[in-house]
Amino acid sequence: MRLSQALPGLFKEIELGLKEIGENELASSLIDLEIVGRCTCSDDNCGTFYTLKRSTWQDKPLKHVIPQVDGLYTIDVFKGQLACVEIFNRTDVASKINGLFPLNT
Prior knowledge:
This protein is α+β, with helices and mostly antiparallel strands.
């Protein structure tokens, strides 16, 4: 599912935040960005999601981008593509991500 459809409010926040720190190319790439997975930790406050399959970028050098967005820890970028959005303490995001990608318990 596209970030813009799943979490339109967060999409706008990230887009604006990226533009504010001069990351215009990343901001313009958000419109087609697909959420492909989620963090598998058991922290109820974690809304971290992946936009590239983790196997693509895991254990490889990443660029960390930190726009001012409530609850955002960092955005990980791999080869110019947004790979992971690490976000905490945002129940709106965590609830949506949990609904899209429920953890097997």
